[in-house]
Write a structure and sequence with these properties.
This protein has about 350 residues and is an alpha/beta fold. The protein contains 14 helices and eight strands. The protein has one domain (about 5-345): Aldolase class I (TIM Barrel). An eight-stranded parallel barrel has the order 1-2-3-4-5-6-7-8, surrounded by nine helices.
């Protein structure tokens, strides 16, 4: 049994943090059952030159740069959906999804829309990009505008992945809005939602903002926070009698600190729900030779938990990471549009 096979065997669903067609095929063979996309992923793929012919075809249709960006994203996500559709069918809609991120520029500082107007736009885009797709998840950020759109999107049967979740406050707001919407559905047989909890960014934050954490606690805040939200999620949905699982996505599982082993977060959350792992992380785990066992319900010692609870201001953490997160959310879309414009200008 390979390391990734052991990860799947203990209960984790592996979703690839990429829609690179080659990586999708490779990781599907190694046990991945879903994928996710974002503007950075699309930009990196365009930079390879492998999709120049596709871009030329789109340019020939007289599409502007923004339309080209969404068309190429749609194409790459569709390709991945085709690979994972057998999983979706075999699990009756519980797995096999590919996430499609809605317009990040709605969260750019230059966007002057009100929260209500942003929510309306998210609903419009969510309906547009989900139409006709059985195994596409619509990715909406846990921002004021995104959160305000969730109830209506869930009420029309949109399969949702709530992203940019750092805190319990955001998770509960998202979950409750989606559940309100789901209760309006004529049938909840196909109702599915996931909540992407960002992990490694919290540990990057505490190294700078809370340097006096002990060695036992430093580097554990992202893990403790995500496991706490996993427990809350397990408890909330336990009595809802649903056909499909409403799950946590352990996101941002690639390590940021060079001294950390590549499998630090992968192993920490093993045993339940979903991990979105970058291709390089999956490759490192696969090459490690390790046998991965269930760890998701194991917390650090009580004194470490108490220290984290005492020293880490979660409200400040959320505010800081959300501010940084919105920059990281919107800027890649601008970079993607710039890249497409450069490709168009080349002979």
């Amino acid at each position: 049994m390979t390391p990734l096979q052991s990860l799947v065997a203990c209960g984790t669903k592996i979703w690839l943090d990429s829609v690179d067609p080659d990586e999708v095929e490779r990781n599907r063979a190694n046990g991945a059952t879903g994928a996710t996309s974002n503007p950075i992923i699309i930009s990196d793929l365009i930079k390879t030159g492998r999709f120049d012919d596709s871009l030329k075809q789109l340019f020939a249709q007289k599409l502007d740069d923004e339309a080209v960006a969404w068309a190429i994203t749609d194409k790459l996500v569709k390709n991945a959906q085709t690979v994972f559709e057998p999983v979706w069918k075999a699990t009756k809609g519980d797995n096999g999804y590919v996430s499609f991120e809605l317009d990040p520029l709605l969260e750019d500082s230059s966007c002057k829309l009100s929260v209500t107007e942003k929510a309306k736009r998210y609903v419009e885009l969510g309906k547009k990009w989900s139409a006709g797709h059985i195994n596409r998840m619509i990715k909406v950020p846990a921002t004021p505008g995104g959160l305000a759109a969730l109830e209506e999107l869930a009420a029309v049967g949109t399969t949702l992945n709530v992203t940019l979740v750092f805190s319990q406050r955001q998770y509960i707001a998202a979950r409750d809005a989606i559940w309100r919407g789901a209760q309006k559905l004529p049938s909840r047989e196909k109702f599915k939602s996931v909540y992407s909890i960002f992990v490694s960014r919290l540990d990057v934050y505490t190294e700078k903002a809370v340097p006096d954490l002990s060695p036992a606690a430093q580097g554990m805040v992202g893990i403790v926070n995500a496991k706490h939200l996993w427990h809350l999620n397990q408890q909330f949905w336990a009595d809802k009698k649903l056909s499909l699982k409403q799950e946590i996505v352990f996101a941002s599982t690639g390590t940021k600190k060079k001294s950390d082993p590549a499998w630090k977060y992968v192993e920490a959350f093993a045993g339940s729900d979903i991990e979105t792992n970058p291709p390089a992380t999956n490759a490192a785990v696969q090459a490690s030779g390790r046998t991965i066992t269930r760890q998701v319900d194991r917390m650090p010692p009580a004194d470490v938990l108490k220290e984290i609870d005492t020293k880490v201001d979660i409200t400040k953490l959320e505010e800081t990471l959300m501010r940084e997160g919105l920059d990281k959310f919107a800027e890649p879309q601008k970079a993607l549009l710039k890249l497409i414009a450069e490709k168009r200008a080349r002979p």
